[in-house]
Design a protein that fits this description.
There is one protein chain. By secondary structure, the chain is of the alpha+beta class. 23% of the residues lie in helices and 47% in strands. The two termini are 22 Å apart.
Length: 70
């Protein structure tokens, strides 16, 4: 995958509800449900009821996170 392709795909879903799974060390998984708030050149942000998280496009490419559109 290419960073530009990932960025354009996320731009299509700006302000859509998403479920983000973050795969951490020792089989720990964090799950965040919110909306894609903003897209910047290297990162995008997810905003929820009481959090705001940012992720890089390379996190998606390497499989460190996964996104499911709701």
């Amino acid at each position: 995958m290419n960073l530009d392709i990932v960025r354009e795909e996320l731009k299509k879903h700006l302000n859509d509800k998403v479920l983000v799974k973050v795969f951490g060390m020792r089989n720990k998984t964090n799950i965040y449900e919110g909306r894609i708030n903003a897209i910047y050149p290297n990162i995008f942000t997810i905003i929820g009821p009481n959090f705001e998280k940012s992720f890089t496009f390379s996190d998606l490419i390497t499989g460190e996170i996964s996104i499911k559109y709701l």
